[in-house]
Give the backbone structure.
Amino acid sequence: MDDDQLAEELRLAIGRLVRTVRAADTLPSGEAAVLGYLDRGGPLTTADIAHQWGVSHQSTARAVKDLLAQGFLRAEAHPSDGRKLLLHLTPAGSDRLAAERRRRADWLGTAIAEALAPDEREVLAKTLPLLSRLDAHLKGK
């Protein structure tokens, strides 16, 4: 298999796996994405999240509005630009995101244990640093 074929097969396999795992989510994908960005990046504006996520400000604003209503986020005036709001995860938002992540990991972990032999699990574990390096390389471009 040449590099182009490998790249396409990898893209397809990862895409299918991500979609399958997301199908088990109980939190809407937009809300999960906003919570995840705030968890990883700390307080951000709606525009910051939209830019990082690669979606419109309006799409992000809808998810933010729902999360604020549920008490998963809190907003405060931006320290350098009072026209903007800085969004923070609340403890309830952190707990909700952690529960969603645990659910995904448990579901995927069960599938790994049931579908893969021990030697296959070792091979899978050895690919994780390679995937991380590819991700870092692509982000650097």
User: Anything to note?
Assistant: Helices lie at 3-22, 29-41, 46-53, 57-69, 91-115, 118-139. The mean pLDDT is 93.
